[in-house]
Design brief:
The chain is of the alpha+beta class and 365 residues long. Helix content is 34%, strand content 28%. Strands 1, 2, 3, 4, 5, 6, 7, 8, 9, 10, 11, 12 and 13 form a 13-stranded mixed beta sheet that branches. A 3-stranded mixed beta sheet has the order 15-18-17, with helices on one face. It has a two-stranded antiparallel ribbon with strand order 14-16.
Length: 365
């Protein structure tokens, strides 16, 4: 049973249908098979490990290269480097996964130079696959892949939940025994984290780390996207680059987010841009909200109520707006609708700067 693979090289493993199926969709029986194989032929471990990483790379590549024209150009580049005999030697040049596997076998045969030329979009050191492989060196991870068109609810060992969106993947330890609760994400997901001040919850998404003690937030971090976006619903969230200066606290190189705030992290420039989410939600209960009704009240009191209701900072010149009064209430309108109404009533305007609302006005007579 094992003899077939006794003399396999890395390219042979990559081209083997059963091996590919094991890497893509491992089962208890297939895991046992390959574990027993390595016990019988331990010298094959380096080739098998390299082949496993290559197949995983191609799984990512198959998702990343979504444009058929890009895939065609990559394959044509490989074929141009081979003579007809070499092409015929690979007997499964079909569409889909087999074609990518054939490409991998050719690249592995030609050497590392072709690897970097052909797979110029292969995972970088901080991509999901690389992060997972690094973590698996010290612990066993469980992976969930959402291949459906619906959201998928995942229950974590500590009681936290992840709502995984389509075309997304997460990996996490089967039990959070370490000093941190660590999760690895590619794609988009909403996290509702159980509070535990003694054990921070960390989400690694490409080059960005999101750290919380207990809160709810959403991360969008697809490999193909130029930006990583973190949006906070409740609690406080710290986000910072994974490659922060080692001599300082890594969180000092990032940003602290509060409810209704989001940050966009430009991966290439490693630059943060903080703002408010598109539709800020009310943080007060319905009963508390009904208490805020104003009749010919100073606009400063109305802004203070909005700050409390939405958890945002509203910056304005109190002296300039000292004579501005309005009659209004905190109704079901959105924050920005309410701001537009208030500004129209006092002849002012507003803009959002670094997650703050800045009011510009010449005052009221």
């Amino acid at each position: 049973m094992f003899q077939k693979y006794a003399s396999f090289q890395t390219a042979d493993f990559v081209a083997d249908t059963d091996f590919i199926e094991w890497v893509r969709r491992p089962t208890p029986s297939s895991n046992q098979f390959w574990q027993e194989f390595l016990e019988v032929f331990p010298h094959q471990q380096p080739a098998l490990q390299q082949a496993r990483q290559t197949v995983r790379l191609l799984i990512e590549e198959g998702r990343t290269v979504s444009d058929p024209e890009d895939a065609k150009q990559i394959w044509e580049a490989i074929e141009e480097s081979l003579d007809a005999a070499s092409v015929r030697q690979i007997g499964f040049l079909l569409n889909g996964w087999q074609r990518w596997a054939a490409a991998a076998a050719v690249v592995l045969t030609l050497g590392s130079g072709w690897y970097w030329f052909v797979f110029s979009t292969s995972p970088k050191p901080d991509t999901y696959q690389a992060l997972v492989e690094e973590a698996e060196a010290s612990q066993s991870l469980e992976e969930v892949i959402n291949t459906t068109t619906k959201q998928q609810l995942i229950n974590l060992p500590d009681g936290s939940t992840i709502t995984l969106e389509k075309d997304s993947r997460v990996s996490f330890a089967k039990s959070f025994d370490g000093i941190n609760r660590e999760v690895y994400l590619t794609g988009a997901a909403f996290f509702d984290v159980t509070k535990n001040p003694d054990k921070p919850f960390l989400v690694y998404s490409n080059e960005l780390v999101t750290k919380v003690l207990g809160t709810s937030f959403r991360i969008q971090a697809f490999e193909r996207d130029k930006n990583i976006v973190v949006s906070v619903k409740t609690g406080r969230v710290s986000v910072y680059p994974k490659k922060s200066p080692e001599s300082t606290d890594p969180e000092t190189a990032g940003m602290l987010l509060t409810p209704n705030q989001e940050v966009s992290f430009a991966r290439t420039e490693e630059r943060f841009n903080r703002t408010l989410i598109e539709k800020p939600t009310v943080l007060l209960t319905e009963e508390e909200l009904q208490q805020y009704s104003f009749e010919n009240a100073p606009v400063s009191s109305i802004f203070a109520a909005l700050e409390k209701a939405y958890g945002v900072d509203i910056v304005f010149d109190e002296e300039v707006l000292a004579n501005c009064h309005l009659t209004t209430s905190l109704s079901a309108e959105t924050l920005f609708d309410k701001l537009a109404v208030i500004c129209e009533g006092i002849g002012a305007s507003y803009k959002v700067v670094d997650a703050q609302v800045v009011i510009e006005s010449r005052g009221c007579r």
